Amino acid sequence: MRVLIMAAGSRGDVAPYTGIGARLREAGHEVALATHSGFAEMVKGCGLAFRDLPGDPRTPDDAADRDGGGRRTGMRGAGAFVRKLAEGVAQAAEPGADLLLLSATTEPLGAHVAEAMDIPYLGTRLQPATPTGEFAPPLGGARSLGRWGNRAAGRLALRVVDRLYEDAVRDLRRRLGLPPSTARAARLRREAAGRPVLHGFSRLLVPRPADWPDGHDVVGTWWPYVAPDHQLPARLREFLAAGEPPVFVGFGSMGGGDGERLSAIAGEALRRAGVRGVVQAGWAGLEVAGDEVITIGDVPHSLLFPHLAAVVQHCGAGTTAAALRAGVPVVPVPVTADQPFWAHRAGAVGAATAPLPAAGLTGDRLGAAIREAVTVASYRRRAEAVAEGMAAEDGAGRVVEAVARFT
């Protein structure tokens, strides 16, 4: 079967789909992954065909994404990103496919491509965005609004997404020769049809809500593909072997333009905590120098994290799951979006210190939290217990089983 995966966003929004793609390829399927050109080598390195999607989130359109003072204007920037994305989804599907696997960012567009091509698609999401009474939508933070309030907030969040995609959906349907439809009407039709949606995170962090529709399942985390013979850089291996397990500090795709401040905070925090450190540059360009710290670029978390004493990070879904998979305590520094939600979930299982919002972060506060994470034994015990449970989950395998039902 020819399977086309469409995923868009930051590295954390795309990398998990490389693991799905690799497993599908091993199962005998012909797999292509459509995403941004900046991830082309990552995709090809997994043995998957690459198809380009425009709208790289690292280089937003300044005219659409900034106000007169040079500040980012989120909704306007997101709208520009979606419009660019819509231009590419149909083109990415032109070589043909028998089944589409659509991420949360591409499903509101890719579903129309599937309709025009008369082929099935499967929703594959990294966030629990389906409304439920059990918790508020992840983008709304960690605070519960009560069962009625949570469901209402979840429905409102979907309406916001509909509005964001409205113009792009209208133009895309016109280009595809489909009857006119609003984004909301199209979503409601998809929901009424009971289309299956798989969620790639652990049931240990977010158990499947009892009030979700049939076919919406939590299957386990989708881990980014790592080649069996891949090794950490020699310089990093030497550092890890030269002393006590260090503490990781990294903010992934967060902190752009704030690298100097975050670097200073990270360096001070590591010194105050009295620990060695591995600092990942990320999109912010962090850099900390010293005999007891090393600054690195992108490396597979699955290879690095088992060697650590704790992980200081922004609490993106993938990085949080990777730390817990390694049985390592988390020090959450949420920045935006769903990160407070995942910070709360890591804390709820007892594997994370209290969140430290990035806006008010200081070296003193971060140093104290690091010290707490590495000295209070219960954090590691709980992280190791979660790791044991995660090892029994096979998220990518569940996707392979679902795809087989379409053959």
Automatic annotation (TrEMBL):
Biological process terms from the Gene Ontology for this record are: carbohydrate metabolic process; vancomycin biosynthetic process
The Basic and acidic residues compositionally biased stretches are 53-70
Record has Protein biosynthesis as a keyword: no
Q: Where is this region: Disordered?
A: 51-73
Q: Which residues form the Erythromycin biosynthesis protein CIII-like C-terminal domain?
A: 290-402
* One family name in Pfam for this protein: EryCIII-like_C
Instruction: Report domain Glycosyltransferase family 28 N-terminal positions.
Output: 3-132
Keyword Translocase attached: no
The UniProt keyword set, sorted, is: Transferase
Molecular function (GO) terms for this protein are: hexosyltransferase activity; UDP-glycosyltransferase activity
The protein's name: Sterol 3-beta-glucosyltransferase
